[in-house]
């Protein structure tokens, strides 16, 4: 037997079976999987001893050096790498038992800039660059994505964070959540936000909207209670460059470009203050996380490409993410990093939940371990999967796990139905919480019709050839409200995207990730246009209905018993659909009847009205829990025929 050094490339050569030898480079990833460490990684401060320890898991490296800088050096990797000489450079030592390199230096290196040089084997599939400065995968802050890592004291309070004052905050139960997906920058980038120029697009900028009637004032009045932010972990953008954040380069580090003094690590403390203040204003915080692939510069590839990535037999990246690489979350130390970072955001920043981008590419063991560990810190944490990738869809695997997921069945069915397409049976299933499709209970379904990288609902519904919804007409407005009625009267967790509630258009562009502030920034003055204001008023009323005591009927925790939902399916047009909910009452809340007419003509609905005193409270134009004056109270049981205007939903409630 001979020990095989991991820091060298290895080849298998087969001779004697053909006219020439066959060879194959060995992927050492599975061998290296046996190396597992529970040591603290990254830069850790020992205040009692007055020392700083730096650790990096680099199992196949032949040498690792720690580089310290007095000032941040911008390590642009393309079109050519530029070298910067560190102020100090130290060789690190390797623990052969676990593949961790470390060094301990005297002194507390708070706010020092640091990086690593990593050398290793050469050959096919390798990406070691001993001259390159590599950020720390466990860095707590970055002086922007291609700069050095920053040593941070997490216990510090300062001018950016004065300490936690949100002890009274309690996130809503899953059944009571109304989620608002938003890009932090979009909420304040436009001058109409009323935010001072120096704070626009920043963590502090959102709080600056208080008193302006925009931003948080708007969201309070709208009635949502959970804000789902596009990624807030460090991503590869240059300062002030528009980016949604789906190219993560630091899983523990809040994004630097949203901070006021990022070169001093203010992003860590500003983000703490950000979450604290949102909690005090009554909002829960869900953050979008991206573990299916990584951004550029790809520091994990330069630490060990064959360990951290799924590769083809000839060492090309698998690319089911569509972004250039697939992160190998099943590798033990990759899984540990994912779980450690989730725990970090819950413990240090008190976030209330996570939306996992392209989570189908994250192995189920990692997903479940992350959920278990997060719940040990906050038992009320919500985990939401984007359950697909270019490889497939894992909704069926999520059934009964306690995970929720973006419900693309709802997205497709509701948008089609609102436009009058005949898919009544599919729409019936999504209204019922998708339990006939994939969920074990309705709270697994996050129901929506618009998200950040979908075409805006206003543009989907546009009747123009270019689908630019900025000049909306009455039909498009009615269809938006019909789709919204589906979202807020269906069983599950409702979600809307920023601006959807006032029919915001993104100029007919399907995916606006690269369109900048010109297209993406919220123009708050658009709310004042008559048709936009009409939509906004209707969304407010729908959310108020769902969140009311009467509306508890829609907020179910488990799959309702048979008869809780009864269907109305007029035979003369397969596009017509209605349902009777919680009548007789066997769940908190009132009884409801909701009738949907997506056609271009008024349509009759004939059905058996249940016992009770019923009245129309919503007619597609307005909603009033006291009942609409144009409709009298109707007492059941009796057969009832009621006409629903074109492209509208009618809502009836009992208890009058």
Walk me through what this model shows:
By secondary structure, the chain is of the alpha/beta class. A hairpin with a 4-residue loop joins strand 7 (93-95) and strand 8. The mean pLDDT is 94. Strands 11-12-15-16-17-18-19-20 form an 8-stranded parallel beta barrel. Helix 7 (332-349) packs parallel to helix 8 and helix 10 crosses helix 11 (424-431). The chain contains 15 helices and 26 strands.
What attributes characterize this protein structure?
Immunoglobulin-like; elongated; eight-stranded parallel β-barrel; TIM Barrel; 2 domains; six-stranded antiparallel β-sheet; 656 residues; alpha/beta; 26 strands
Q: Given the C-alpha coordinates, what overall shape results?
A: elongated
According to DSSP, the number of beta strands is 26
Task: Tell me the strand order in the biggest sheet.
Answer: 11-12-15-16-17-18-19-20
Number of helices: 15
CATH architecture classification of the largest domain: Alpha-Beta Barrel
CATH superfamily of the largest domain: Glycosidases
Mean pLDDT rating: 94
- The span between the termini is 86 Å
Q: What is the percentage of strand-forming residues?
A: 15-25%
